[in-house]
Amino acid sequence: MNKKGKKIIIFISFAVVFAIVLGVISSKPIISNKVDAPEAFVQKVRAQAQGVYSSRLPLLPVYVSIDGCTVDVVYYTIYYFSFGIVGMAYSQRDGYNIVKSLAGLK
Question: Contact 74/45 with Cβ under 8 angstroms?
Fold first, then answer.
């Protein structure tokens, strides 16, 4: 096998491994609980943050930061691969709400 063939195989192998790792991370994004929110809120955030952003815009969540928590509302930010963040809030009374719509990373 020549050098070009080896480079192609290495590139394809790297791409496959990268896709697998990205798939695993998006099914269970990393969650940072900066404010010690109650576990019930963390579970709701984890359930909502899994999967793709939408069928038309397939962004994959890789990191979720819980930014604030009151008695009945938790505020969090979802970071998507390869760009973009969404600010969200969850309350048991109102459910999930978008606080800051999809924006690019700065």
Answer: yes
Residue numbers of the domain that contains 8:
3-103
Over 60: is that where the pLDDT of 24 sits?
yes
**C-alpha 4: how far from chain center:** 36
According to DSSP, residue 95 is labeled E
- Whats the size of the chain, residue-wise? 106
Q: CB neighbours (10 Å) of residue 62?
A: 16
> What percent of the residues of the chain are helix, what percent strand, and what percent coil, each to the nearest 5?
35, 35, 30
User: What's the CA gap between 53 and 69, in Å, rounded?
Assistant: 23
Q: Which residue has the tokens 């791409």?
A: 15
Q: How many domains does the chain have?
A: 1
Whole-model pTM: value is 0.76
